[in-house]
Write a structure and sequence with these properties.
Length: about 650
Amino acid sequence: MKPFLLIALLLFPLAAQAYDPASGCVQCHGDVEKMRALGAEALYLDPAQVDREVNMKGEPTCVDCHLGDATALEAAAAHQGMLRPLLMVSGQGLAGEAMERGKLGLLPLLPGEKGPSALVPKPDSSMAQLAGVDKINGLHWHDRDPERFSYRPDLAQATCGKCHKKSTEEFNASGMGRLHFQRANRSFAEALPGPHNCGAWFGDNFERLAAETAVPFSAAQAAAADRNCNQCHPGCNDCHFKPFKGEGRHLFGQPEPVSCYGGQRGVICHAGPMERRRGAGFIREDYAYPGSLYAGAHREAGLNCLDCHSLRRHDPGSTASPQARASCRLCHADIVAAVESSEHAQVDCASCHIDEVGGYQFTFWGPGAWAGVETPYAKHAGYFGIRDWPTLIRNPEGRWLPYKPYPMAVLNQKHGLEPTGVVFRAIPSRQIEAQPAIGEVEGFTVARTATETNDAFIITGTRSELPGDGKTILWIQMDKISHALGYGRDCEGCHASHAQKAFSTFRYGDTRNVSEPFTGSYQIVADEKGLRFENLKYGDIKVREGRRVEDFAPFVVFPEAWNVEGMDLSLPFDEQKYQSAQQGLEALLATLKVRREAAVGDAELLKKLAKVEAVAYHNLAAAQALLAPEKPTIRLLDPN
């Protein structure tokens, strides 16, 4: 070695490394031979590579994020108090509970394939059998509570908060960090915010739910449901940790669509409500039900969730937030201006630009197996299918928005609810108590206006025909849909008839309840008489032994129970005025065709004519005004 190089290495031993080579973490996990000898080669980490991925010049250290003791060289002492990833498992005596992955083999947490669950470990079958595990339901990061799977704000503050104090405090006080809206759903039998597809919040409301349930409902059953629900809701790592990119196990950064969809650890986070419940998610692809649905123009263009949903104090806003809607102007200023000055000013962009909707076509809360236990509150939601058109509903502010209305029910209730019209999901002000067991220091107040999300529901009544002494509350879930935008529906889609009609097909194949899948369909009609689900058809339902068809498919008992009358859900328009506008549009399009043929080779003019055509579909008068200055001597052509 040349003398000057040796001197440089002696004088500047840390120039090429920011990690601490004396750390017990580095001495063990940075030694591949030692890890191999211990049978834990999957836990070998190149410390220099970790530094490059973290990209914070040696800060934080291993124990700043993982806790434990970096001064110890013996495994038990070094790992004392250390945080680990958790697997949610079900099986013999395991009701959706936490298990360290070491019990199933130390498999590296790196994606080996594409898909929603690519990061979920696939253990050796013999090890899974030995551990009593039938199924791994998901993988969750270090900032989760191992008893409840809920995000732990105190763990985040003790780890992420060391370097990101302000951001961690903001997240801990945000709607996502506290789950404040979800936790406000205290009961199935409450007029507001009303019964919900996601159910009541089991974690904070066991005593109330047990008192309202007409059959025995135990704390263990509620705890299993609580764990299952909590896994869908995020902590810091869920959004910012990116092992799914395949570029390392310590890669962090800003959220991106896959982050928002669970980061390839199952269909969790926004993948659930967007792809399954609403049926019109941003990514779709393998996350959608079914996966053949068109992902939308924004996804094709490479947009990120945060391009429209900018974070303010770690709050991305709701599905109806003004900042999300205003983001359309960033790319479509001319079109937005045209719509706002037209007769469609109160029609939301998504009302015309979303067609097929997927996900749930029914959901029922009734007896069955859920979250690894038998419970009166199993969520029977596996009626996945396609709706060919959303139904348009006017919100309290007068805006026409797209919805996916579908039948729902909850069984075994002591109390019922009276029928309603369309109700928008406001949350009356209520106090949520702190949960010290998961590191919460103080409670908080929750309230939400009727148009904060624009989600709605209709209570269709309470029935008592099902077996047992309990009541069945029936409602129509009406989730606003916002994503998978593409080419707009043609004008006839709304103006061919005042009645709105859509068609749903579905397939149900939950093997816990049926031995073979069955398919079906129904038509949705919204008109001046009300809302109806007509022509319900379904195949032979082969019920598994020990199950009852009415528990997961109560439509076989009362198929008409979700039809409501006495409300006008038709589309109002003047037929003569519409026909006149159509004639004007056809004339303008014919004129544009002639102009384009004459403008071949003139790129600038062709661009202007394309803009006129785009505006014309949204505001005919505005398009005519744009076209007139080009050649005022040319009159619009008569298509006849």
